[in-house]
Design goal:
globular, mainly alpha, single chain, 6% strand, Rossmann fold, 9 helices
Amino acid sequence: MARIAISYRRSDSQDITGRIFDRLVMHYGKSTVFRDIDSIRPGIDFRTQIADALKATDVLLVIVGPHWLGRGEGAASRMDNEADPVRIEVETALKRDIPIIPVLVHEVKMPEVGELPGSLRDFAFRHAVTVDGGRDFDHHIEGLIRSLDQFFGTMIGDREGLVSAETRKPSLLKKYGLAGGLAAIVIVLAAILFRTDTKQPAVAVQPQPNQPQLIQPVAVMPQAAPAPSPPATLAPPVQSPDSQYRITPKFDCASSSGEDEQTICQNGELTVLDRELNAVYTAVRGRLDKDKQKALAADENVWLGQRAACKTDVACIRTAYQKRLKVLQAWP
C-alpha cells in the first residue's frame, strides 16, 4: 500500500501540520498517512529509524514554515547541524529519489539555495505547494491532494489502491479516467457516423426497344452493339478507428522498448495526447528560468515513471496524460 510521510518541525508548523494530516487521512485513509517519523524509540539510532520509516514511503511532504531552517538569535541554524532530524529526513529522501513536495505554510517562500547546506540544495528546486491556514485552506488542500493523486494515479486500479472504496471518497483521478473513457467512445462513434460510404447509387439501365433493320438497296446496316454495363462500384475498405490519425508520437517508435511507448505508438488517441502534452510542456519550459527548468524536468521524470508503470493498459496511460496536462496547464 502506498504511503505518504510528513516531515515538519514542531516549533515551526505543528498546528497546521495537524490540520493537513487530518484532511489527508480523510481522503486517503489512516493507514496511508503518517507523521512524527522522528519520534525516536529509546536506545535506537534515530538515523536508522528515519531510514527505515522512509523505506515504505512513496512521497514525502516537507512542511516549510517561518522557522523551518531553525534559525535562532545569535545561534547557528539548526539545519546546518548534521544531526538535525528534519535535515536527515530530507537528505535521506533526496538520496533515495523519493518524490518530495514542499508545502509552504504561513506565507513563507521556498528557501534559497544559499540558505541550505550542500546536501539539501536540490530541495530548493522542488516545485512547492502553498497551503494557507486561513479562508483558502480548503482550496489549497484540494490542490495538494490533486498533486498527490498525480503520484499515486497508476497505483489505482490494478493494485489494492490507497484505501478501500468504502472508506475513501472517489478520487479525482477516477473522475478524469471516466471522462477520458467517454471521450474515447465519442471519438470512435463520430468516426463511424461521419465516415460515409462513397459508393454511388446504382442506375437502372432501361432496355432499348428493338430497332428494325434498315434495308438499303445495296447493304444491310448492322444493329448497334449494346452499350457495356458500367462496372460495379467497390465499397471502400473498412478502416480501423485509429486510421483517422496520421501523426506519430514525439518519441521514436522504432527504437522504443517500453511497453507504454509501444502501446502509445499503436493507439491513435494516445498519440494525439502525447503530441498535445509535448506542446504544452515546451510552452511551459520556454517561460521558465534555468533553475525552474530543472525542477520541471525532475517533475516530468517522475511522471514518465508513472506512465511506464501503466505498461499496456490504455486506460491507465490515457488517464496519466489527462492528469499531466492539467498539472502543466496550471504550472506557475
